[in-house]
Amino acid sequence: MDTSTLFTNVRILDGTGAMPYAGSVLVQGNRIRTVGRSSAALAPQGATVIDGAGATLMPGMCEAHTHFSWNDSATLAGIQTMPLEEHVLWCAKIAKKYLEAGWTSCVGAACAKPRLDVVTRNAINSGQIPGPRYLAASQEITVPGALGDETLPHLPFPEFSFGVNVNSADEMRKAVRLFLKYGVDSIKLNLSGDNFTPDSPAETTWMSDAEVAAAMDEVRVRGKRGTAHARSAASVKQALRHGIDVIYHASYTDSETLDMLEAKKDRIFVAPGIAILLAMLYEAEPWGITHAKAVAMGYQHEWDAAQESLRAMHKRGIRILPGGDYGFAMTPHCQNARDLEFFVKYLGFAPMEAIRSATLYGGQIMMKPDELGIVKDGYLADLLLVDGDPLANLSILRDPKRILAVMKDGAFAKSPEIAAQRRWEHAA
Amino acid sequence: MADIHYTNVRIFDGGGEAPFMGEVLVQGDRIARVVRNASGVRAAPVGGARVVDGAGAFLMPGMVEAHTHFSWNDQPTLDAIQRMPPEEHILWCAEVARKYLDMGWTSCVGAAAAKPRLDVVIRNAINDGTIVGPRYLAASQEITVPGGLGDTTQPHLPQPDFAFGAIVSGSEEMRRCVRMFVKWGVDSLKINLSGESITGMPSDRCQFTDAEIATCVEEAKAWGKRVAAHARSCNSIKRCVTHGIEVIYHASFTDTETLDLLEQHKMEHFIAPGLAWLINTCHHASEWGLTPEVTKKMGYHRELEAAVETMKALRKRGVRILPGGDYGFAWTPHGTNAKDLEYFVKVVGMSTMEALLSATAWGGPMMKMGKSIGYVREGCYADLLLVDGDPLADITILQDKSRILSVMKGGEFHRAPPVRSARTTRWAA
Questions:
Q1: Does B389 touch chain A (CB under 8 A)?
Q2: Residue A111 has what DSSP assignment?
Q3: Among A90, B165, B374, B400, which residue's Cβ finds the most Cβ atoms within 10 Å?
């Protein structure tokens, strides 16, 4: 028989945008069986009863732009020089941390070696390691000289590069086919540059339409998804023209770009990853990036443009999701919930809208819009028990002590703490 | 890390004496106090220490596996081990490392890895807390010769990456090979001195030249590393002694001269016969096509008889025989390693006390940790098992995970003792 868990006396924040209410939630097997307005519902026989004492019960969160293989290093080279074996164990460790931090779903946005994401996803799904639901990405596909080409003149070897370099539609097709062979869920294309790499800054756009078309052609043949690193307006438009539905960053827009985004708003997702912009401007000095240097690199210009673009997108009802580029020294893993605070502080979100972007929209970007992301009868039981009210203070979502319990697929990834202490009472 | 106070336990301290009732205090990563007292006597509480009332359970040192292959993946062939991609392989090793600790092996001696860095990476990840596992000494791949045990390349697939072992021919290739593994950070070099019937070269042959062996040992010693040998044949065992190869795996075929030699040098060598492999290959591998008829033809039945006679003789001569060996094949799956202790008792004729000591008292020097592990004594590392029952009466209970109530490594519970009563209502927040 399926195991059951009954959460009683909880404040349910269901993720749809509705105001929280007192009630109880019964989980049976891996799904939510009943959501009730009685705060002291009767437990079925054998159920584990969790008296929440008024804590908030909300859907597990979804990170829309995850890089398990970024190793909290300050440079791309620092990520790439980690050997393969260590890198896999690193990814496994990070996957567990995300889950315990309340991210029950993550959308892989690129990995640093060809199979890291695929292997991590498979190991999670087979139960070998704990981790969130995961969509596995390819490496970043780029062109010579653009973001992700970390080869050097005297070290031209592909293994030395952070991303995969292609040069022509045929090479693109071959690279994409290889990643599809490995079993990725999405192909990541670096359409624009990035101020992180001064030789290919954010407002530059690098790939030919023929190359992007070849990639998306292969992606469609196998029923997968294309995602784009697109900071420049031209790259956002290029992504939309070619049917790329997941757009990362989208810092620079003009009215044409915004119109194009709005026209496709039921299909597309934007995950801006703004934490890295703020971190580079204000928090990167220990790694040699002073504020003045960051401004000179173009980060202030981009941040100003990004706030304007994202506010406009939000007003137009375009789905903006949290997550993005955590895994650098200045944006360490598992601070990801800061994005929700930034959405409120800088982009004009209401706290409820910020929550919805991590829950309701999360189920949608995970391609499970009818069974994941909200607290509702029949939905998958990905739930967080949170000490406090995230609507009053979003920062509690990045405090491990406030995340009292994490449930994924009906099983606790993090159990309520008090129960764990009881085991000391007796042995034998 | 909380201090732990075990009370009401029956202590087997690893010294070879009968167990006694008492209590053990663990502070930090070490055993701080061992006290004898009468059954049922209440111990004085120690401030700040959590009490584990053992209710008379058996407290013994964590066991040491002397011949471990985390990267063998419970498959029937070397080829099937080698075909696992490196990403999956490292996750497999991490999973197996945890399983060993689950089963009470708080230390393991790596005996060879299937890809160059697997053992090193796992040891480092255990030590820095990335993964959970026993204390571990990392081995190289098996070093072998073209056509020898571990050369799984084929005429049309000659790439070194296809090979299970590292293939060398000639002293200078050996030297380079040893240096590469030392560069990766291994604790020991594994050299396949003898053949292995399942792979074509019979177990009673020796495949290396003396010059190659000498280079291996010389280079390893220059870097302060240990050498371990796969040595089934009489000739290969003798060469272990003459070349100073400390760890001898298998040691199946011996003559009086070899036995004398081993006895003369008995404190310089460790023998881990890996009897489970021979016994199960002979009698329990039919499912994978190795019927008793097939394995008889391969010579394994003759080898098993020889190995049992050798172990009986070595036991009488006081040579150190340790458990472990070649778990990780389909018919010797990981986690069943305590069968070795059963075989030591039932096949070799050890007392249960000797079998337990082989896994504890001799484990310390095998781990290069002297007497700091392998004993329940003040000052030793707190690697402790709490066992439901008496392994001295029935050695097989150590094969049963549910009978190993808790596993502690370095003063921390890897598996804490189960609680007596489960509660269904829990409080959070």
A1: no
A2: B
A3: B374
Regarding whether B236 and B188 lie in a shared domain, the answer is yes
Residues 129-168 of A with CB under 8 A from B: 129
User: Are residues B219 and B175 both part of a single domain?
Assistant: yes
Say which residues have a Cβ less than 8 Å from residue B218's Cβ, sequence separation at least 6: none
Is residue A153 very low, low, confident or very high in pLDDT (cuts 50, 70, 90)? Answer: confident
| Chain A environment of B21 (Cβ under 8 Å) | none
Contacts of B423 in chain A (CB under 8 A): 419, 422
Claim: this prediction has a pTM higher than 0.95: no
Q: What ipTM goes with this model?
A: 0.86
Domain end residue (candidates: A313, A336, A359)? A336
- Mark whether A203 and A150 lie in a shared domain: yes
A41 near B CB under 8 A? no
Mean pLDDT of the region B3-17:
94
CB of A420 within 8 Å of a chain B CB? The answer is no
Domain tally for chain A?
Answer: 2
Backbone torsions φ then ψ of B180, nearest 5 degrees: -60, -45
Name the band, by pLDDT with cuts 50, 70 and 90, for residue B202.
confident
CA A209, A214, A215, A221 torsion: positive or negative? Answer: positive
Q: Which residues pair with A142 in a beta bridge?
A: A165
Q: Are residues B148 and B194 in the same domain?
A: yes
Instruction: Give the mean model confidence (pLDDT) for residues B319-327.
Output: 93
Q: What whole-number distance in Å separates Cα of residue B336 and Cα of residue B96?
A: 12
Residues B7 and B113 in one domain: no
**Domain range holding A36?**
4-59+375-424
Residue A170 and residue A106 share a domain: yes
Residue B427 included in any domain: no
Question: pLDDT tens digits for A187-206?
Answer: 999 999 999 999 999 999 99
Identify the CATH number of the domain in which residue B7 sits: 2.30.40.10
CA distance B245 to chain A (A): 30
B288, B327: one domain: yes
Res. B154: pLDDT tops 90: no
Give CA–CA dist A300/A316, Å, rounded.
Answer: 24
Do both B322 and B340 map to the same domain?
Answer: yes
Contact A48/B at CB under 8 A? yes
Q: Does B47 have pLDDT greater than 90?
A: no
**From the CA of B428, how many Å to the nearest CA of chain A?**
5
CB contact under 8 A, B121 and A89: yes
| DSSP assignment of A374-426 | S--TTSB--EEEESS-TTT-GGGGG-TTTEEEEEETTEEEE--HHHHHGGGS-
The answer to whether A68 and A24 have CB atoms below 8 angstroms apart is no
From A309, A336, A363, the end of a domain falls on A336
Residues B222 and B236 in one domain: yes
Residues 6+ apart with CB under 8 A from A376: A14, A16, A32, A35
Average pLDDT over residues A4-16: 96
What does the pLDDT read at residue B1? 60
Contact A84 B425 (CB under 8 A): no
Question: pLDDT: is A46 or A63 the higher one?
Answer: A63
Q: Which residues lie across from B4 on neighbouring strands? A: B26, B50
Tallying the residues shown for chain A, one arrives at: 428
Does residue B200 have a pLDDT over 70?
A: no
User: B118 in contact with A at a CB cutoff of 8 Å?
Assistant: yes
Instruction: List pLDDT tens digits, range A70-124.
Output: 999 999 889 989 999 999 999 999 999 999 999 999 999 999 999 999 999 999 9
A389 touches chain B (CB under 8 A): no
CB contact under 8 A, B428 and A84: no
Q: Is residue A39 part of a domain?
A: yes
Question: Using an 8 Å Cβ cutoff, are A228 and A235 in contact?
Answer: yes
Mean local confidence (pLDDT), B283-300:
92
Count of domains for chain B: 2
Residues spanned by the domain of B133: 63-366
Q: Looking at the structure, do residues A387 and A246 belong to the same domain, yes or no?
A: no
**Res B149 pLDDT > 60:** yes
